Each structure stands twice: as structure tokens, then as C-alpha cells.
Amino acid sequence: MSGDQFSVEAVRDHYDRLSGHYRALWGEHIHHGYWEDGESPSGAQVKLVERLAARARIPRGGRVLDVGCGVGGPAIWLARNLGCSVLGVTISPVQARMAAERARAEGLSRLARFEVADANRLDFGAESFDAVWVIECSEHLADKARFVESCARALKPGGVLALCAWLRAGEDAPPGHARLVAEVCRGMLCPHLASMTEYQGWMRRCGFAQVEAEDITRRVEQTWGRCAELVSRPEVRAALRLTDRRTRRFVASFAAIRRAYRTGAMAYGVFTARKAGGRPDGE
Ligand code: SAH
């Protein structure tokens, strides 16, 4: 399933080249929005972060590892709103720089720090964090089970894994679903997507005591209608004509994602899992 088009280098190159555009078009948060009440796109993105933080009961002032931190939106939110001390890691040096500059501009560089690191080889010491926070990064990783294990290792006893991920439908899905997911994966540089059951299984197997998952597809799928609107703007279309084939394929896959959500080929999951040990309420 893997190969050059999904390699770590290809993913790094994608985010190095496009993060400036992501930020210009979609803001500081490179993830889905959560819509329940007519929110603006940026309001909806913050809502996703608020909900994940509340669900995971991220402790105030806690030490958080944000894996696949993008340009820093969620890490800076955790630092500003919960006083967390956050280490954000990304495969993209451009993103790490953008995130650090943003934290500095907000006066939060003491709390929110950023480094380049490969999520396939997380090595920040065992039992180091109160929370490991992962929004839409594990999609890019070939060995997701091993990644979940490394998150478990990095957590202190009683620590929490908070993870949002694009999912594929379960085993019994019709073949058309798999083809659509494969098209999304090609455009979005994902070796494959996993199902909700697979993520839950990996979490249970590596010693998480409470594993909770929710399918929030209907709350987040609007994201792609908004993205389609953005890329249909004349100035964006003109810019796309000048860009390379990979970027055009990436943008073309937005339509496949909308179809995948609509037909049930893909879903969006939010997971929280608490490592055994620590205080009973995890705080
Ligand atoms: N979590 C961020 C960004 C999501 S976009 C947000 O919510 O805003 C996906 C992120 O995963 C990008 O930051 C990308 O650099 C990161 N990523 C992808 N593969 C990675 C890898 N192997 N190691 C570290 N980060 C990776």
C-alpha cells in the first residue's frame, strides 16, 4: 500500500509547499470544522478543538504532545485557553517555523513550542505527557497500530490520548466504497484509512483503560462544501492552473471526499482513551 507517493518525504513536501496557502485560505487550524449552530468556518474549527479538549478532559496546565501540529492553531489554543505546556511536532520544517512565529506573536512561545519530528518514530521519553493530542495526522501514517502504541508509551499513567481521524467504512462495505476511499487517499497522501473499530482495537490492545469513540461525520462534512467554494474562487482557480499536477489532484479529491462522506464510504471519528493508572478521574 505504501510507495513514493505516500512517503514521509512526499508528505513533508506537500505541507512545506502548501502550508502558506492552507493558512491563507483556511486559517490557523488545518482540520475539519464542527458545525452545529451556523458557525463561521473558523468558529467551527475552534469548536472541534473545544469539544476534543472537553471530551478528553485535558488538564489545565498539563503537558501535551501535539502530533502533526500543522501551523500551530490547536497547540496555541491549548496554551492560551488551558495554560497547557505544548510540544507540537510536524514533519514539515515550514510548518514548525510558521507555528513558532505565531506563538511568539501571541506571547505564548514559553508554553507552545514546535519541533520537526517524524510521527513514525516518536521518541520523547516514556511517560512524559499528560495528553497526546492528534488531529488528522494518523491518516498519513502507514503503521497506525504502531503509532497508537508509541502514543501510549509517551503518556504518563492516567494520561489521555485525544485523536480525531478520517475513517473508512467497516469491513462489510461495498467495493465501490473502497475505490472512493482509495481515490481520496491518493489525493490526500494517505497510505490508507482505518475504520473506527480498528482504531478502537489498537487502543484497547496497548493498555488504554477507557476507549471512547464517536462518529461526528454529519457535524463536520460541511467542511468540504466550504473548501469547494474556496477553490472555485476565480483567483484560486487561476493560481491552480499554474501549479503542478499533484496539487491539482489534491484539490480535485475534495469532491471525492464529499461523495465519500455522503455515501458512507468515509466517516469522521473522535476518540479519547485513557492510559491505565494515575488518579481515578485522570486529573
Ligand atoms: N493537527 C493540525 C494539522 C493537521 S494536517 C491541525 O489540526 O491544524 C496533518 C499534519 O500531520 C501536518 O502538520 C503534517 O505535517 C503532519 N504529519 C503528517 N505526517 C507526519 C509525520 N510522519 N510525522 C509528523 N507529522 C506528520
Structural notes for this entry:
With 283 residues, this protein is α/β, with parallel strands linked by helices. It contains eleven helices and seven strands. It has helices at residues 8-26, 41-56, 73-82, 93-105, 144-154, 175-188, 196-205, 217-220, 222-231, 234-241, 245-263, and strands at 63-67, 85-90, 112-116, 129-135, 155-168, 208-215, 266-275. Helix 5 links the parallel strand 4 and strand 5 (155-168). Helix 9 packs antiparallel against helix 11. The longest helix is centred in the first third of the chain and has 19 residues, at 8-26. 44% of the residues are buried. S-adenosyl-L-homocysteine is lined by residues 8, 11, 15, 29-31, 68-70, 73-74, 89-92, 95, 118-120, 135-137, 140-141.
List keywords for this structure.
alpha/beta, 11 helices, about 20% strand, binds S-adenosyl-L-homocysteine
